[in-house]
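Entry:
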Amino acid sequence: MFAKFFGYLIICGSILTCFGLVKTLGGHLYARATYAETLGVIKTVAIQDYYSARKGSPQMGSEKMYEPQVICHYTFNGISYEGVSLQMTPQHFTSRKKLNSFLESYKKGTSVKLLVNPDAPEENYLKSGFHIPQIIGIGFCLIVAWIGRLLV
């Protein structure tokens, strides 16, 4: 009896989690649909560093974080723009090593695809594919739901 209840609980929780992940991914795709695509060229990458409170209690101190800001030059509707190209999912790194591996993809002079807001062309985002953590999360939820099904 308990195993059956627990199985149903796992299935329901996994399905709800999958819906949450799909909604997050769907919102990401919706934002892409409302923006126009154009090509840009990376002018430089600025690194903003700051300290953030560690998880848990504020008394534990803080850790240094790095946030890359990719500055691109692009043309939209015949007008040239230059500015920080944001990412749909902002990147924050806790080590220089992880930051440097990320920066390998964003060297000066590299062409990148940008998503530009047609109503405010100075607002742009770096176009990216699916996010691995979301795909892993959905896969994990499906596996857990399958395990729950075995218990039922």
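The mean pLDDT is 74.
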